[in-house]
């Protein structure tokens, strides 16, 4: 810890502590901090707060780009709740989020645990780079390639499973398989981020704790369950929160792979926002869906932090 | 926690840095620098023409601009090639430009967007067409009236078609030989088609798909509705249009023509629509065709050219695509869509729409005329990436290198079957397309799902058609 200025509070007769008086030095520090933070704050206001407020306002209007907006009150929200496509898209997004985040965490954690074990450093670096590589590629380009690979008739995936006698799977054209395919493609691309967080988290766990547990006779699995996971829980929380927020905003993979189909089986909320706004020119309704998605993300994130009090252990 | 001790000297130092930075910024701000206005053509009074980027490469853009400059040196022209994956994506980007206050003067619009642009954004070309009638007689004599009619809305003409593509059937000659099948006759039937697919399947391995098609508005399920004598939406003709037909077309060709198509009542639950879906479902069940994926069919060129697909619906644009993929002119061929109850086929056309917001409407009209000229289209479509709207451009010489041997089928789809119709594309086309693709996917994704999917399609289409755009 670096040095801090300690001031002794002056007791009042009533025993209450008055607000500490700020020295000119304190005021200078605050001024400087404000100056440094100002560009970021301006950026947040201009690029985050204003669009959010703008979306909320726009959600109360009907606007098709061509004509002037007209006030619609809550009509857009009523329209949403009567629109089965929008409701299905929320259900799909939640289903996608549950499976994608769970699978992403499992894959990333399993690989991170494997790679923090005994392995030559160079090989570890190769794996880390390979796992992180998909994350820096464009989701749209990856999805175009995956669309070829998962094609029912000409795709490599069906050719490979055909070698072991499995019948071709309609990966992208069956209502049951399409969502699973989108999840697989998404997880393949995204798990590298959680993987890197977990590798960092695992490296921060003091070796002494594991050594002490070994001396007490703990096995590998017990050590992971009772030492590694609890100590990794703050990292798990961060990875899950980020993973959930990203998954709730999924767009490119289902848009390119299946275009939301067959039927609405892979249509997500952000796809609905895009289609409603930019294809059907109902910007007010699209904004209303966007506002609901924002509320959903806030609620899910708040719930995660709330639940984390029980499961997250800070050293 | 950070150190909170800051001395007066430190503050003075930072203050000096700040003053220095401000002085530098002030100096930089006073220099001449590039701004958005410096982008060539922007805000310089140019006539701005928005085209679908992938269809117009740098060479095409250069052809258009240089040729136009020679004819009209007084009109500055800028081609804004908008990159988009399909027409709906393109329209979305154009509308975004309009919302941003940077609307182009002219927009290249296909059948899918003709009525939307006409209703909300377009300027009828009637007065200029009437004014320059003498000049345009040669153009209209060279262009099939069906293409022109597809560019009309409520009695007015909004575009001069420059290209079109009818949904014909491409056949792989190598696969035909393998199946011991003859090239089909122009009047082949749906049953002949099924028999051919079965022969292809028998003679090929498990990795072979006889019929491949894409789930989309053009060339998907809709041609099967057309040849079964039905359509997605009830169709009729708007009154009017006589001013054009009487001026440019002989009596035989103007018979039955009106002021453009009207797409009204959804009819997804019509018996014939269900019959068409049942037929496609039976082909899937028999492994004669794949469940349709969404997309634009670009990934199909590779599998077709390597003999893994036997038949697929495509337009004249595929002649150029297959040639680029290395397919020899005699390795494939094209035939009309097979007859069912009718042999009516489907086409989509494109031309330039003039926007109401344009302040250069007379100049824009000059560009529209220039773009429809024979020499312009010859230079623009030299690789057969589409079918030119002018009949006279479809010659043996044009298809000698790229093929196919039966290239006259491209224009023959219009000439021999004059009832061949445009894509059903009302102003609500975006939502109609989405509903069609969505429920077609569901209808053909699993057995016995056709009827419930069509019922839901009908309900969604009704809602879409009731909506104001």
Structure in words:
The complex is a heterodimer of chains A (315) and B (469). Chain A has 315 residues and is mostly helical. Chain A is built from twelve helices and two strands. Chain A has helices spanning 24-58, 75-81, 84-115, 121-136, 139-149, 156-163, 175-203, 207-215, 220-248, 252-257, 269-279, 283-311; strands at 61-62, 70-71. A two-stranded antiparallel ribbon of chain A has the order 1-2. Chain B is of the alpha/beta class and 469 residues long. Chain B has helices at residues 8-30, 58-71, 87-99, 111-120, 126-131, 133-142, 145-149, 173-179, 190-203, 222-227, 242-248, 251-254, 271-285, 300-305, 317-324, 361-371, 374-380, 396-400, 408-415, 429-443, 450-466, and strands spanning 47-52, 77-82, 106-110, 152-153, 156-157, 161-166, 168-172, 209-211, 214-215, 233-237, 261-266, 293-294, 309-314, 332-335, 346-354, 387-388, 421-422. In chain B, strands 1, 2, 3, 6, 15, 16 and 17 form a seven-stranded mixed sheet that branches. In chain B, strands 8-13-7-14 form a four-stranded mixed sheet. In chain B, strands 4-5 form a two-stranded antiparallel ribbon. Chain B starts with 7 loop residues before the first helix and ends with a helix. The model of chain B has no long low-confidence stretch (mean pLDDT 91). Classes of the chains: A mainly alpha (315), B alpha/beta (469). The interface between A and B is large, with 39 and 45 residues.
List the defining traits of the structure above.
heterodimer; A: about 325 residues; mainly alpha; MetI-like fold; two-stranded antiparallel ribbon; 12 helices; flat; disordered N terminus; B: alpha/beta; D-Maltodextrin-Binding Protein, domain 2; about 15% strand; globular
């Amino acid at each position: 810890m670096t040095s801090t200025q300690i001031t002794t509070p002056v007791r009042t007769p009533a025993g209450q502590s008055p607000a500490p008086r700020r020295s000119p030095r304190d005021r200078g520090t605050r001024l400087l901090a404000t100056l440094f933070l100002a560009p970021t704050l301006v950026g947040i206001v201009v690029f985050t707060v204003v669009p959010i407020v703008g979306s909320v306002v726009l959600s109360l209007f009907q606007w098709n780009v061509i004509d002037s907006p007209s006030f619609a009150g809550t009509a857009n929200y009523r329209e949403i709740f009567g629109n089965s496509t929008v409701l299905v898209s929320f259900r799909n997004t939640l289903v996608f989020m549950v499976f994608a985040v769970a699978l992403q965490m499992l894959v990333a954690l399993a690989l991170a645990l494997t790679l923090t074990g005994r392995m030559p450093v160079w090989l570890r670096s190769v794996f880390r780079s390979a796992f992180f590589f998909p994350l820096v590629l464009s989701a749209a380009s990856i999805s175009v390639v995956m669309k070829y690979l998962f094609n029912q008739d000409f795709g490599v995936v069906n050719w490979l499973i055909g070698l072991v006698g499995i019948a071709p799977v309609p990966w992208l054209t069956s209502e049951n398989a399409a969502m699973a395919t989108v999840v697989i493609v998404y997880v393949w691309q995204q798990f590298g981020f959680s993987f890197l967080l977990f590798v960092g988290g695992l490296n921060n766990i003091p070796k002494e704790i594991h050594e002490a547990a070994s001396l007490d006779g703990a096995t590998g699995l017990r050590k992971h369950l009772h030492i590694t996971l609890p100590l990794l829980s703050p990292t798990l929380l961060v990875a899950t929160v980020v993973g959930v927020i990203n998954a709730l905003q999924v767009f490119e993979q289902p848009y390119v792979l299946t275009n939301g189909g067959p039927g609405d089986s892979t249509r997500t909320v952000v796809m609905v926002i895009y289609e409603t706004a930019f294809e059907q020119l109902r910007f007010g309704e699209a904004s209303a869906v966007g506002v609901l998605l924002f509320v959903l993300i806030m609620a899910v994130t708040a719930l995660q932090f709330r639940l984390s009090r029980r499961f997250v252990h800070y050293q | 926690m950070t150190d909170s001790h800051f001395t007066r000297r430190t503050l003075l130092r930072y203050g000096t840095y700040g003053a220095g930075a401000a002085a530098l910024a002030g100096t930089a701000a006073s220099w001449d620098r590039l701004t958005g206005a410096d982008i060539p053509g922007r805000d310089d009074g140019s006539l701005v023409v928005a085209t679908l980027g992938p269809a117009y490469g740098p060479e095409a853009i250069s052809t258009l601009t240089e040729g136009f400059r020679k004819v009209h040196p007084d009109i500055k022209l800028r081609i804004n090639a908008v990159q988009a994956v399909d027409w709906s994506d393109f329209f979305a980007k154009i509308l975004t430009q309009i919302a941003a206050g940077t609307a182009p003067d002219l927009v290249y619009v296909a059948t899918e967007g003709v009525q939307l642009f006409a209703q909300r954004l377009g300027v009828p070309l009637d007065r200029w067409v009437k004014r320059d009638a003498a000049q345009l007689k040669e153009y209209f004599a060279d262009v099939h009236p069906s293409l022109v009619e597809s560019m009309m809305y409520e009695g007015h003409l909004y575009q001069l078609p420059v290209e079109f593509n009818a949904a014909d059937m491409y056949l792989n000659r190598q696969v035909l030989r393998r199946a011991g099948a003859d090239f089909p006759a122009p009047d082949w039937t749906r049953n002949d088609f099924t028999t051919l697919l079965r022969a292809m399947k028998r003679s090929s391995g498990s990795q072979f798909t006889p019929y491949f098609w894409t789930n989309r508005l053009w060339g998907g399920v809709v041609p099967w509705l057309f040849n079964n004598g039905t359509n997605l939406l009830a169709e009729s003709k708007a009154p009017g249009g006589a001013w054009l037909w009487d001026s440019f077309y002989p009596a035989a060709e103007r018979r039955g023509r009106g002021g453009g198509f009207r797409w009204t009542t959804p009819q997804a639950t019509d018996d014939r629509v269900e019959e068409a879906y049942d037929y496609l479902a039976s082909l899937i069940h028999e492994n004669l065709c794949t469940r349709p994926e969404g997309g634009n069919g670009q990934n199909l060129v590779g599998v077709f050219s390597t003999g893994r697909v036997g038949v697929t619906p495509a337009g004249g644009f595929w002649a150029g695509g297959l040639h680029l993929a290395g397919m020899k002119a005699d390795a494939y061929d094209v035939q009309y869509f097979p007859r069912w109850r009718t042999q009516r086929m489907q086409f989509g056309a494109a031309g330039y729409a003039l926007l109401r917001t344009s302040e250069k409407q007379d100049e824009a009209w000059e560009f529209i005329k220039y773009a429809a000229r024979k020499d312009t289209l010859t230079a623009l479509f030299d690789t057969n990436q589409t079918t030119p709207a002018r009949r006279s451009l479809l010659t043996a010489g044009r298809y000698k290198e790229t093929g196919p041997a039966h290239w006259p089928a491209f224009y023959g789809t219009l000439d021999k079957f004059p009832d061949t119709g445009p894509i059903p594309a009302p102003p609500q086309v975006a939502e109609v397309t989405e509903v069609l693709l969505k429920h077609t996917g569901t209808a053909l994704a699993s057995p016995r799902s056709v009827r419930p999917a069509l019922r839901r399609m009908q309900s969604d289409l009704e809602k879409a058609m009731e909506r104001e755009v």
